[in-house]
């Protein structure tokens, strides 16, 4: 059970990282369009 929890936790962290990267890309694109 502990191993499964750790695996799920790492998957959630990976999804959070992907979400942060996606947000950063959007902000970067908007910034490049404005300038």
Describe this structure in words.
Helices cover 94% and strands 0% of the residues. It is mainly α. The mean pLDDT is 93.
Task: Indicate the topology.
Blueprint lengths: L1 H33 L1
How would you summarize what this structure contains?
With 35 residues, the protein is an all-alpha fold. It contains 1 helix and no strands.
Keywords:
single chain, 35 residues, mainly alpha, 1 helix, 94% helix, rod-shaped
* Helix-strand pattern: H
Outline type: rod-shaped
Could you tell me the strand content as a percent range?
under 5%
Percentage of residues assigned to helices: over 70%
Structural class: mainly alpha
Quantity of strands, as a count = 0
Give the termini distance in whole angstroms.
51 Å
- Count up the helices: 1
Give the mean pLDDT. 93
Largest sheet composition: none
The Rg value, from CA coordinates, equals 15 Å
Low-confidence stretches: none
